């Protein structure tokens, strides 16, 4: 009976709602009726203690903040949320702007060298220049591949060159007279032959020789191939968490080619870090002949005032204040004593006083003295003076 009464109550309630909607909104649309039904149902729902029985919905700003996407230009460099977790393994290389100039120069040198090496039309392009973790890079190398471990002699550290399988087979076909348009299939599990290893070793040595020339204007260095590996586990030259610079080069030989990658750990380029921090335009590497010539000409045309000091003496101030006309100052000098030539507070050299016609002259007796105050000592003295004030 209770169930029947409950069914009757539900039917009566539904009939009442329907009658009210019919009376009030005869001309209303279906969307308005549906909206009113939804509002009535929400009013009839009991309070469950969780905010009226409804769940809180995030707005677009809260979603962007959670994902770490912020359109504010001021906070564009600041990462938060899920984005900060994703970018935790990424290392910025922008603090070494000279690397782009060096590897652009390497691309130009390598284009000419590979054309002479293969006697074919070779185009080399710089795909990307990024920073990675060494362990992540080893795990991402597509196999089979040849990895060359090289040593930078002057920097006393190691680097890595990775040659992809497509470039290996393309280079072997070109060097051994393979036909054009014949795409060599990659055979999984087959080790590279001795001929293939030797040919790729010669190509890697050519790449490293051009890298020597690319780094030469900045810092003389010589890269030597230590060994070739086909298993990335045997090419571990740094810890997995160490940061490294990854340079991807694309080599195209008409309808064939592949990729070659150069990996330089940050520890390897640490000896020239100060040089890589500089920002120079073009390939002048910090030298501007126009500015040097202008500076030299202006220095030669500049004028300075030189004082010829015969004698210096310290005396009390009260005696100076009591000077009278006719007083005689005794100078403890002889006519043969040298005269000091001074520019400001800097002593330049010594000379002898004399006469040329009606003018008093000084003949230079010694060479110019080198200033004892170096630039580093000048900065230190200036810093101490600032701290003392």
List keywords for this structure.
six-stranded antiparallel beta sheet; Surface presentation of antigens (SPOA); cilium; Chemotaxis protein chec; flat; 12 helices; 389 residues; four-stranded antiparallel beta sheet; 3 domains; cell inner membrane; alpha+beta
Task: Give structural notes.
The longest helix has 23 residues, at 2-24. The chain contains twelve helices and ten strands. The N and C termini lie far apart (99 Å). The strands form two sheets. A six-stranded antiparallel beta sheet has the order 1-5-6-3-2-4. Strands 7-8-9-10 form a four-stranded antiparallel beta sheet, with no helix packed on it. The protein is of the alpha+beta class and 389 residues long. The chain folds into three domains: 58-88, no CATH class; 98-276, CheC-like (Chemotaxis protein chec, 3-Layer(aba) Sandwich); 304-388, Roll (Surface presentation of antigens (SPOA)). Strand 8 (339-343) and strand 9 form a beta hairpin.
Total helices: the number is: 12
Shape verdict: flat
Q: What is the quaternary state of this protein?
A: single chain
**Structural class by sheet pairing and helices:** alpha+beta
Helix content estimate = 25-40%
Question: What is the CATH domain class of the largest domain?
Answer: Alpha Beta
Uncertain ranges: 44-52, 73-77, 281-285
End-to-end C-alpha gap:
99 Å
How are the strands of the largest sheet arranged? Answer: 1-5-6-3-2-4
**From the coordinates shown, what is the CATH architecture of the largest domain?**
3-Layer(aba) Sandwich
Give the ordered list of helices and strands. HHHHHEHEEHHEEEHHEHEEEH
* Total count of domains: 3
Q: Which fold name is given in CATH as the topology of the largest domain?
A: Chemotaxis protein chec
Instruction: Let me know the largest β-sheet.
Output: 6 strands, antiparallel
Radius of gyration: 41 Å
